[in-house]
């Protein structure tokens, strides 16, 4: 069974962001980078499928500058077999249709049985790429999956809807599945597996070889929203902050009366 | 400008998100029509033209079937924008329709300023305006961003939509939300634990603070997903919606899906090490502090007094 997992490297959301000089994206200097949280569930699911069926081969793909190799290596240490790095220094200006176009172009002639992605990225958050890949490759695609089972070449999945309700759906393979938080428990790479990952194949593909579609949109301007809430900010020693907070709660709420 | 609003219908009912769709149409001043795969027995409160595909015939949501039906309606309406809610229905169907039409898709629109769509970036810490390069676009709207419009009272004029189609994805049924023993909606004070608590042992810290206020403790989704708290305690779009007299968010960043479940609380306190965390936008008081240091002191002072 051939599996493709698509992952993105994103900054830590607790970072102090700055707007880039051209005002079209955030400044990518001086940030801590990690695997998009949703994609961790996709990688874990690929590895779980491999553990289940035994005979499986997992390719993990990421698009971006050289540093995304670090994130690919984490996926290799979690249990993927091979990395594919689509080298693209302009990745942050690409819109979801271009990203999906590159993935579909790479995957088209490789006969993957299962393609897994996160349901969205933490930074851009469009939630389009996985479904677009399914459409571009004319495969069934199921998004926002929180439960996954594979038996006799058939997937039975639960899609998360609003308010905790789930839809049970089924489809045959090949298929594309986008993974939601809580689908499984992503493993931490162990030291021996980190060492082993260093020896795994990591192929680089040039962006020109796979980028065949034009952007349909672009960011005009990225900016910080105006702070709406005139909320009070408390800072200082814990004892002092606690006293001030209790005083405020006594004045403004009835809960300490 | 003309927009086609895509309403949602599930299990016999039109979902409330149509107020966002109507709010968006009002904000843009565009002519509009609506599409739904629904039932004549449960029509949306909408006074315009409704393109109706029969849910009896086509069943609950299957992506290829709904895509074909919607494309048939789009072919008749010829809208400039096709507008969805950014929901499990909208974010699944919108990219398929955009792909079929060769249009740009703009996700989770929060504002419309001078004809330009605005969307959030990085957990709403940043925003961006989008320039569309195709002749029209598909958009999804963030829940609540355009809501608050008066519900319409007139009945729609109906146009039927029908296509011959199948799907490779089968719908097997719905699974109801897990029923839990805790009803957070009754608590006057809710203290919630976010991923910032760092480890499962710190749940007791949050529970003790809730107890000191005579309240209950809740949690954000990662805390529930990690099984540090039961699902019945989850606050947010995929958990419970609460509006207590006091809500204290401890180590919670303030993602839109969490805010949707608690922003109506009377008074909101956030305890967070990140001064720029988006929870600050809805908090009446933001204590910039390490919760593991501040919470024990608070408990001590509250139980002493
Ligand atoms: C379709 C969908 C539905 C969702 N439904 C829900 C839902 O119902 N409810 C929900 O909560 N989420 C939901 N989410 C997830 C949501 O997008 C966020 O990922 C989640 O709310 C983040 O939880 P958090 O704030 O606890 O964690 P994080 O975003 O990781 O934030 C942790 C915070 O803790 C702070 N912190 C760290 N250490 C400390 C410390 N020592 N002291 C104080 N502060 C500290 C950090 O500064 C940060 O702000 C949903 C997502 C999707 C896509």
UniProtKB/TrEMBL annotation, chain A:
<keyword id="KW-0813">Transport</keyword>
<dbReference type="GO" id="GO:0005829">
    <property type="term" value="C:cytosol"/>
</dbReference>
<dbReference type="InterPro" id="IPR014730">
    <property type="entry name" value="ETF_a/b_N"/>
</dbReference>
<comment type="similarity">
    <text>Belongs to the ETF beta-subunit/FixA family.</text>
</comment>
<dbReference type="Pfam" id="PF01012">
    <property type="entry name" value="ETF"/>
</dbReference>
<dbReference type="InterPro" id="IPR033948">
    <property type="entry name" value="ETF_beta_N"/>
</dbReference>
<protein>
    <recommendedName>
        <fullName>Electron transfer flavoprotein subunit beta</fullName>
    </recommendedName>
</protein>
<feature type="domain" description="Electron transfer flavoprotein alpha/beta-subunit N-terminal">
    <location>
        <begin position="23"/>
        <end position="214"/>
    </location>
</feature>
<keyword id="KW-0249">Electron transport</keyword>
<dbReference type="InterPro" id="IPR014729">
    <property type="entry name" value="Rossmann-like_a/b/a_fold"/>
</dbReference>
<dbReference type="InterPro" id="IPR012255">
    <property type="entry name" value="ETF_b"/>
</dbReference>
<dbReference type="GO" id="GO:0009055">
    <property type="term" value="F:electron transfer activity"/>
</dbReference>
Automatic annotation (TrEMBL), chain B:
<feature type="binding site">
    <location>
        <position position="195"/>
    </location>
    <ligand>
        <name>FAD</name>
    </ligand>
</feature>
<keyword id="KW-0285">Flavoprotein</keyword>
<dbReference type="Pfam" id="PF00766">
    <property type="entry name" value="ETF_alpha"/>
</dbReference>
<dbReference type="GO" id="GO:0033539">
    <property type="term" value="P:fatty acid beta-oxidation using acyl-CoA dehydrogenase"/>
</dbReference>
<keyword id="KW-0274">FAD</keyword>
<feature type="binding site">
    <location>
        <begin position="251"/>
        <end position="258"/>
    </location>
    <ligand>
        <name>FAD</name>
    </ligand>
</feature>
<keyword id="KW-0813">Transport</keyword>
<feature type="domain" description="Electron transfer flavoprotein alpha/beta-subunit N-terminal">
    <location>
        <begin position="3"/>
        <end position="175"/>
    </location>
</feature>
<feature type="binding site">
    <location>
        <begin position="220"/>
        <end position="221"/>
    </location>
    <ligand>
        <name>FAD</name>
    </ligand>
</feature>
<feature type="binding site">
    <location>
        <position position="272"/>
    </location>
    <ligand>
        <name>FAD</name>
    </ligand>
</feature>
<feature type="binding site">
    <location>
        <begin position="234"/>
        <end position="238"/>
    </location>
    <ligand>
        <name>FAD</name>
    </ligand>
</feature>
<dbReference type="GO" id="GO:0050660">
    <property type="term" value="F:flavin adenine dinucleotide binding"/>
</dbReference>
<dbReference type="InterPro" id="IPR014730">
    <property type="entry name" value="ETF_a/b_N"/>
</dbReference>
<dbReference type="Pfam" id="PF01012">
    <property type="entry name" value="ETF"/>
</dbReference>
<dbReference type="InterPro" id="IPR014729">
    <property type="entry name" value="Rossmann-like_a/b/a_fold"/>
</dbReference>
<dbReference type="InterPro" id="IPR014731">
    <property type="entry name" value="ETF_asu_C"/>
</dbReference>
<dbReference type="GO" id="GO:0009055">
    <property type="term" value="F:electron transfer activity"/>
</dbReference>
<protein>
    <submittedName>
        <fullName>Electron transfer flavoprotein alpha subunit apoprotein</fullName>
    </submittedName>
</protein>
<keyword id="KW-0249">Electron transport</keyword>
<dbReference type="InterPro" id="IPR001308">
    <property type="entry name" value="ETF_a/FixB"/>
</dbReference>
<comment type="similarity">
    <text>Belongs to the ETF alpha-subunit/FixB family.</text>
</comment>
<dbReference type="InterPro" id="IPR018206">
    <property type="entry name" value="ETF_asu_C_CS"/>
</dbReference>
């Amino acid at each position: 069974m051939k599996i493709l997992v698509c992952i993105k490297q994103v900054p830590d959301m607790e970072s102090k962001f700055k707007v880039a000089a051209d005002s079209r994206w955030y400044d990518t200097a001086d940030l801590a980078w990690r695997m998009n949280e949703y994609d961790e569930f996709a990688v874990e699911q690929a590895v779980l499928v491999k553990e289940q069926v035994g005979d499986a081969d997992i390719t993990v793909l990421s698009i971006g500058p050289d540093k995304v190799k670090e994130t690919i290596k984490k996926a290799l240490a979690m249990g993927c077999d091979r990395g594919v790095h689509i080298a693209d220094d302009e990745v942050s200006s690409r819109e979801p249709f271009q990203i999906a176009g590159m993935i579909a172009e790479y995957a088209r002639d490789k006969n993957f049985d299962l393609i897994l992605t996160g349901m969205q990225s933490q930074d851009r958050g469009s939630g389009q790429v996985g479904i677009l890949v399914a459409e571009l490759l004319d495969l069934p695609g199921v998004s926002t999956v929180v439960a996954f089972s594979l038996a006799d070449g058939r997937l039975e999945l639960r899609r998360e809807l609003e308010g905790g309700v789930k839809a049970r759906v089924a489809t045959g393979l090949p298929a594309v599945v986008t993974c939601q938080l809580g689908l499984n428990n992503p493993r931490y790479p162990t030291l021996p597996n980190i060492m082993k990952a260093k020896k795994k194949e990591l192929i680089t593909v040039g962006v020109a070889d796979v980028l065949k579609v034009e952007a349909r949109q672009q960011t005009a301007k990225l900016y910080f929203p105006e702070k709406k809430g005139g909320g009070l900010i408390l800072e200082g020693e814990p004892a002092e902050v606690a006293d001030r907070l209790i005083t405020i709660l006594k004045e403004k709420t009835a809960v300490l009366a | 400008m003309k927009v086609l609003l895509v309403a949602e219908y599930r299990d016999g009912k039109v979902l409330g998100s149509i107020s966002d769709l109507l709010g968006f149409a009002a904000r843009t001043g565009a002519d509009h029509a609506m599409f739904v795969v629904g039932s004549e027995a449960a029509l949306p409160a909408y006074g315009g033209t409704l393109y109706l595909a029969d849910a009896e015939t086509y069943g609950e949501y299957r992506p290829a079937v709904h895509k074909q039906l919607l494309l048939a309606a789009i072919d008749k309406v010829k809208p400039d924008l096709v507008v969805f809610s950014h929901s499990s229905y909208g974010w699944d169907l919108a990219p398929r329709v955009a792909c079929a039409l060769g249009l740009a898709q703009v996700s989770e629109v929060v504002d419309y300023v001078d004809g330009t769509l605005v969307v959030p970036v990085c957990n709403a810490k940043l925003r961006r305006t989008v320039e569309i390069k195709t002749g029209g676009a598909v958009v999804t709207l963030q829940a609540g961003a355009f809501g608050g419009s008066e519900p319409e009272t007139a009945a729609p004029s109906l146009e039927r939509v029908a296509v011959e189609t199948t799907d490779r994805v089968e719908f097997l049924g719905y699974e109801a939300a897990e029923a839990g023993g805790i009803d957070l909606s009754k608590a006057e004070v809710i203290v919630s634990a976010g991923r910032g608590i760092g480890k499962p042992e710190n749940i007791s810290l949050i529970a003790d603070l809730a107890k000191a206020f005579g309240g209950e403790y809740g949690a954000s989704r990662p805390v529930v997903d990690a099984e540090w708290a039961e699902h019945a305690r989850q606050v947010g779009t995929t958990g419970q919606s609460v509006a207590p007299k006091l809500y204290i968010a401890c180590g919670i960043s303030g993602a839109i899906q969490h805010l949707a479940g608690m922003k109506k609380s009377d008074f909101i306190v956030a305890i967070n090490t990140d001064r720029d965390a988006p929870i600050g936008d809805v908090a009446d008081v933001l204590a910039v502090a390490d919760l593991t240091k501040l919470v024990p002191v608070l408990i001590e002072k509250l139980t002493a007094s």
